[in-house]
Design goal:
With 226 residues, the chain is an alpha/beta fold. The protein is built from seven helices and ten strands. The chain has a domain of 135 residues: 3-Layer(aba) Sandwich (Rossmann fold), CATH 3.40.50.2020. The strands form three sheets. A five-stranded parallel sheet has the order 2-1-7-8-9, with helices on both faces. The termini are far apart.
């Protein structure tokens, strides 16, 4: 029988403050905090405030299984980076045509959301900087892996994944690609991110936009997207 864990964080802002306390060694360095919207934005805003860092987003969406949109077989990031869960693809018999169809649909969604969040802002310069990628938790890890791959292509000096809670399976996957800071690891057969929060709500687009508008600080040179 599944037993729910006791909440550790009051809400996403509390989780962000707790993560920020573990990242204070980076204060004063050239740091870019990248939220995975929507859920990662409240945490990222707390981290960026604590470090005096620039705040931005890396838009990532899961690739939904055909006929099972609540489940995914991978993820796609805003620069086109794709990470597939090969085990799920094989188990569910997802064909190459179905993969292509879902990639095309999700690519359109990601572009639309990138335009919504970024508006006319330039992509921040990432080369040589510390990139901290933030989300509200790691369940499968594939969304974060796509984000990490996207960020790697822009050649930061260091990539840190900061999440309050992660499943042990996801943690092992992501640790192979980046340094991971987490405050709680779920080792049971079932992992649900919301279980670790006392108060949980769906973060709206307006909340993301309001945070970006109020907290976006261009501390370092930016460049136009290629």
């Amino acid at each position: 029988m599944y037993s729910r864990v006791s909440p550790i964080f009051e809400n996403r802002y509390d989780a962000g403050r707790q993560l920020a306390a573990k990242l204070l060694d980076y204060k004063g360095q050239s740091v870019l905090v990248l939220a995975i919207p929507n859920g990662g934005m409240p945490l990222a805003s707390e981290i960026a405030s604590a470090l005096g860092a620039e705040l931005d987003v890396v838009v990532v969406r899961k690739l939904p299984l055909p006929l099972q949109p609540e489940s995914g077989f991978g993820a796609l990031a805003d620069d086109g980076s794709i990470i597939l869960n090969d085990d799920v693809v094989r188990r569910e018999g997802v064909t190459q045509d179905q993969v292509n169809e879902q990639v095309a649909a999700v690519t359109l969604q990601v572009r639309q959301r990138s335009l919504l969040y970024r508006k006319d802002r330039q992509l921040p310069l990432m080369r040589g900087r510390v990139a901290i990628i933030v989300d509200d938790g790691l369940a499968s890890g594939y969304t974060m892996l796509a984000a990490v791959e996207s960020v790697k292509r822009r050649r930061p000096r260091e990539i840190i994944v900061a999440v309050p809670a992660a499943s042990s399976v996801a943690l092992e996957k992501v640790k192979a690609s980046a340094t991971v800071l987490t405050l709680a690891e779920g080792t049971g057969p079932r992992f649900t991110v919301s279980d670790y929060y006392r108060h949980w709500h769906d973060v709206s687009d307006s909340e993301v936009l309001k945070t970006l508008d109020s907290q976006h600080v261009v501390s370092f040179p930016s460049r136009q997207p290629r």
